[in-house]
Specification:
The chain has 24 helices and 17 strands. With 570 residues, it is an alpha/beta fold. The structure holds one DNA strand of 29 nucleotides.
Length: 570
DNA sequence: GCCGTTTTCGGCCCGACTGTTTTCAGTCG
């Protein structure tokens, strides 16, 4: 369902690049970029919205773009896009994504030196002809060359889970030298992937010194009084030293998102106010109205405080104005993990270890959900072994040393929609997750729906099947899945493993709207992965979920009562 | 190209940094 949205968003964004290259109005360019972003963020298929005539209600898409979207849905492309491609080589326009190389420089190179693609660009850099262009010196060429390197390496983003670990390592190093310290940027917003890391600190010169000496630093890219950048292994990290009285304004500013901040500044302008990274000011007279606390910024604009995870300009500003923001689920409300693997299948931990580690984490319970028999490479459990495992789990629970273990399974859903295990054994289990693990190219909608209709299945694991950076979701009509889950009382998983984060944030929000509950599970294969629950909570928060929407905020007794309800047919 | 109980036309966020400028353009976040 997202395929249409993503493809259309890419075309619109490409049109924006073409227009910017041509020197068209930057406002028109931005209109295309905004539309592209809004469409990418939509939880439902643009085709559906179009056919229902609901495109008109989307802010940022007007008459002309509606018409162009119609062209795309009917013919798979947009006339204007095709014309632009004929006029200017798309190979050239793609170079707009090269850091430090913008539309003006690119156009100069195109018109002045006949650069038409990546190879041409490499050539004029190597031969030194690029410096012949007006306003182009050797330093600029160096920067572009460096940008090209990053561009060619391709993957300049990392997984949220990796970013958190690097970020916290940096914080630990800086903590002794700073009176205040925080992560900002997309990592603070818990975006599923992160580019650069932004760190803010209050302190003197020592903090800067400590920063550029963090073990693992490969290169110091810049170092001034208030800002420094380093390459820590493969990651660029920016540190900004802030004054205490400007802390809130800076934290707000550097947390973003850019779109969220732009929207805030529009509101500020209407209120005759100005926001920047130093504070919030009256335009007339310049009187400072605040900036020490992040809340100051929102308060001055007549808005409730908005949690970082919501700051994507997806309606949170309107909700803050109307006091309809959700009370987001919090990590400390999580009572247990609902997806783990032990050495009984392809994990490394023993059942005892899982139980004890759960207790350490403050959990009441942990579900052991090893693979079922079809997953032969994962040493999946057949009925007999599962029966043994259930007995072992009950014995461990009787000892009462650790967190309560829920006897569970992550059971395959066969391509024809049938389940991998018989009801006789499923009825013995506390928690049944059903997942798609094969035939990824066929449409999985009916397959998942038939699992939802089984009274034995509590939850659908990693519902879309995507793996970040490596595997697309299987073809799926998520809206139908949400409907089926809602009508059968089936829970959908937020798989919190850093490689999956599936459902995604926008799906969570849609699921909630449609009356579906979610379960967060880490899919841990050893106990060193259980911490990823934090990532799942981050995604839930980005999806506007509240504690009652997430069933592993329920105490054990309530959770068990909840799981029994489906078996009794509601 | 979008949008509006301040506007259907004239606006459209804000600042830092860098380089190559003799006063500012380009790029970034």
């Amino acid at each position: 369902m997202e395929n249409n949205n993503r493809k259309l968003a890419r075309i619109l964004s490409r049109i924006a690049d073409f227009l910017e290259f041509k020197g068209d109005s930057i406002y028109r360019v931005n209109a295309y970029r905004k539309a592209a972003r809004v469409i990418k963020d939509l939880p439902e298929d643009i085709k559906e919205l179009h056919s229902k005539g609901k495109l008109g209600s989307i802010h940022g898409i007007g008459e002309k773009l509606r018409e162009k979207i119609g062209q795309y849905l009917e013919g798979g492309t947009i006339k204007k896009y095709e014309e632009l491609k004929r006029e200017i080589p798309e190979e050239l326009i793609i170079l707009m994504d090269v850091p430090n190389l913008g539309p003006k420089t690119l156009r100069l190179a195109y018109e002045g030196l006949g650069v038409r693609n990546l190879n041409d660009m490499k050539k004029v850099i190597k031969e030194g002809t690029l410096t012949q262009l007006p306003g182009m010196g050797s330093k600029k060429v160096k920067k572009i060359e460096k940008g090209l390197e990053i561009f060619l390496k391709g993957q300049d983003r990392m997984l949220l889970g990796e970013a958190i670990q690097i970020g916290e390592r940096v914080l630990r190093h800086l903590a002794p030298h700073a009176s205040n310290l925080s992560i900002a940027g997309s990592l603070r917003r818990m975006k599923e992937t992160v580019g650069d890391l932004d760190i803010l600190g209050v302190g003197g010169k020592e903090i800067m010194e400590a920063f550029v000496q963090i073990p693992g630093t490969k290169e110091v890219l810049a170092k001034g009084e208030t800002k420094a950048s380093i390459f820590l292994e493969e990651t660029q990290i920016d540190l900004r030293v802030i004054r205490e009285k400007e802390w809130g304004a800076a934290l707000q500013y550097f947390t973003g998102s850019k779109e969220h901040n732009v929207h805030l500044r529009e509101i500020a302008r209407d209120k005759k106010l100005k926001i920047n990274e130093y504070g919030i000011f009256a335009i007339e007279g310049g009187k400072k109205l605040g900036g020490a606390k992040e809340e100051d910024v929102y308060k001055a604009l007549g808005l409730a405080y908005i949690s970082p995870e919501l700051r994507e300009d997806r309606g949170e500003i309107e909700a803050a104005r109307d006091l309809t923001l959700p009370t987001l689920v919090e990590y400390h409300q999580i009572q247990g993990d609902l997806h783990t693997h032990s050495q009984w299948s392809d994990g490394t931990a023993t059942l005892e270890e899982i139980s004890l580690e759960g207790k350490k984490l403050g959990y009441q319970y942990i579900a052991v959900t090893d693979h079922s028999k079809s997953m032969k490479i994962a040493h999946g459990l057949d009925e007999k072994r599962l029966e043994d495992q259930i007995k072992t789990i009950r014995t461990i629970n009787a000892q009462g040393k650790g967190a309560y273990l829920l006897a569970g399974i992550e059971m395959d859903i066969h391509p024809d929609g049938t389940l991998d295990l018989e009801p006789d054994i499923l009825k013995e289990l506390d928690w049944v997750v059903a997942s798609v693990h094969s035939h990824f190219t066929q449409d999985a909608t009916e397959r998942i729906l038939s699992a939802c209709h089984s009274p034995w299945v509590h939850c659908i694991g990693h519902p879309t099947g995507r793996i970040i950076f490596s595997r697309e979701p299987y073809p799926l009509d998520l809206e139908k899945v949400f409907k089926g889950a809602a009508s059968t009382g089936t829970v959908l998983e937020i798989n919190a493993h850093q490689d999956r984060l599936d459902l995604m944030d926008i799906h969570c929000r849609k699921a909630k709207e449609m009356g579906v509950k979610v379960a967060i599970g880490t899919d841990s294969h050893h106990i060193g992965q259980l911490w990823m629950m934090r990532l799942g909570v981050g995604i839930a928060r980005r999806g506007w979920l509240e504690a009652p929407d997430v069933i592993n905020t329920y105490p054990l007794k309530d959770l068990l009562a909840f799981t029994k309800r489906k078996r009794k047919g509601g």
